[in-house]
Amino acid sequence: MQTIHSLADMTCWSNEVIGSGSTIALVPTMGYFHEGHLELMRSASRLADRVVVSLFVNSLQFGPSEDLASYPRDLARDSSMAADENVDILFVPTDIEMYEPDFNARVRVDGITDTLCGKQRPAHFEGVTTVVAKLFNIVKPHITVFGQKDFQQFCVIRKMIRDLNWDIEIVAHPIVREEDGLAMSSRNTYLSREERGKGLCLHKAIQHAKKRFDNGLTDAELLKSEIHDIISAYSGVSIDYISVVDKNNLSDKEVIDSNSVLALAVRVGQTRLMDNCFLGNDTETSN
Ligand code: AMP
What would you report as the CA-atom Rg of the chain, rounded to the nearest whole angstrom? Predict the structure, then answer.
């Protein structure tokens, strides 16, 4: 595995690979790898000839009171983890080269970003789409792999690719979980032992929702109120949202059907945790 910092070197590598007729898969990340990231890398290496993993803690997607400064970073650890996978390039651009002092461009996807996390984090998705657009232009991938863990992010990037006519296939990888069901996340490192236990409220809610849907419940309001009760039973957990949305356009569902996704976000202490599941056809690997 080679590590590239310079944008020009990255594009030069990609041009050579494309010129030789090979395909490139890109896995964008903010680093501090866990098994979820590694699964995305493995999936990418099955889908394309060469794999580029980008590692960039993107300041543009953090709000002023969010955790940009404390976001976990460990390049040496991440490099050795990625090197054990089939990764060709770990692309680690610098802040200064990505966002030069006079950087003014923004890429925005309307509509689909107004709901779920977009409601609470107004500039977040604009930061995500801007950086991913830059990564697409620099790396020129044929395929990109995103996690279903950040389901809205996946939908927003898919929409951006369609709307802007990038010839890139986007693939969603199922949520990778700890043995007890907690969805893996770099932010889980913020949790104390006690908070980590409380974080399991999300998986408990998801299991309940799947069971209720499998047993014939289709009333979204009723399901949401049952989930509200399950999560509220955990002290110190506050609910950001409990939503049942359409998996294609994220519009709210009144009647749950096989296109429905349950999306949850809570705060455990200071830490924001997210989880989701398809209610109709479950594509998750590890439950
Ligand atoms: P991050 O480094 O947190 O920005 O995540 C980089 C990519 O990994 C995104 O596409 C995430 O959706 C994905 N990802 C993070 N956690 C998981 C997980 N537990 N399972 C599957 N994908 C994940």
Answer: 19
